[in-house]
């Protein structure tokens, strides 16, 4: 099950799992046409609402892998000027949504007793601040903390919980700056490997952490950032 699976990193992850022969559920607020197009199942879910999350979990209860990819920035600006509604929405989707999905699907994984894997999409912004994105980066730092807490609590049940922390990725959410040559050049100047990521640069890390090949890895947040954290 991939939240936010109708676009961006989530869609790339869903397509990659499908390519390996897995059954994939796109869990999104409006992604049915995309799910149909790529050959996935679809469940409508508003990850901000417990009732919606638990209804989705009840419909597709036997989940081996949960990828919490849904997220947003919701805007930007200095913390001293940021609209509190932008802050609240960002917290609600990025942190509360990840928590609710982990709670609902994690509880079902525990009851099944067959183990599982949860992979959260975090951000290197959790560790490296960018002016104007403090609200977003605070939620991703919280996602990293939630990842570690869930990892230690669920380890006795053979459920691994990890995160992938991309730097900037070319997705619909970043189109505003990625299509501005000056803004793009300024950001890429911070990246030792010289370019922002494409979705296909991030997807393999998600698949690895979800796979048996990562059976002894839990509680990590893996940076996929072209070396940006080195600067």
From TrEMBL:
One of its GO terms (molecular function) is oxidoreductase activity. CDD domains: SDR_c. Signal peptide: none annotated. Keywords: Oxidoreductase. The keyword Cytoplasm does not apply. The keyword Oxidoreductase applies. It comes from the Bacteria. InterPro entries: NAD(P)-bd_dom_sf, SDR_fam. Belongs to the short-chain dehydrogenases/reductases (SDR) family. This is Short-chain dehydrogenase/reductase SDR. It comes from Kutzneria albida DSM 43870. The lineage of its organism: Bacteria, Bacillati, Actinomycetota, Actinomycetes, Pseudonocardiales.
């Amino acid at each position: 099950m991939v939240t936010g699976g109708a676009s961006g990193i989530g869609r790339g992850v869903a397509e990659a799992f499908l390519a390996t022969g897995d059954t994939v559920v796109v869990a999104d607020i409006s992604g049915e046409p995309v799910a149909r197009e790529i050959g996935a199942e679809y469940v409508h879910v508003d990850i901000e609402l417990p009732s919606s999350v638990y209804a989705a979990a009840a419909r597709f209860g036997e989940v081996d892998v949960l990828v919490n990819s849904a997220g947003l920035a919701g805007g930007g600006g200095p913390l001293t000027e940021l609209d509190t509604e932008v802050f609240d929405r960002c917290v609600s989707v990025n942190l509360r949504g990840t928590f609710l999905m982990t709670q609902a699907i994690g509880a079902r994984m525990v009851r099944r007793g067959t183990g599982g894997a949860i992979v959260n999409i975090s951000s290197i912004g959790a560790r490296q601040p960018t002016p104007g994105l403090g609200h977003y980066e605070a939620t991703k730092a919280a996602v990293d903390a939630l990842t570690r807490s869930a990892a230690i609590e669920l380890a006795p049940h053979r459920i691994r919980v990890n995160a992938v922390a991309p730097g900037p990725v070319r997705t619909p959410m970043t189109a505003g700056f990625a299509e501005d040559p000056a803004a793009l050049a300024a950001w890429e100047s911070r990246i030792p490997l010289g370019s922002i990521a494409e979705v296909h640069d991030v997807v393999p890390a998600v698949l690895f952490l979800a796979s048996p090949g990562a059976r002894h890895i839990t509680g990590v947040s893996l940076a996929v950032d072209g070396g940006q954290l080195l600067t």
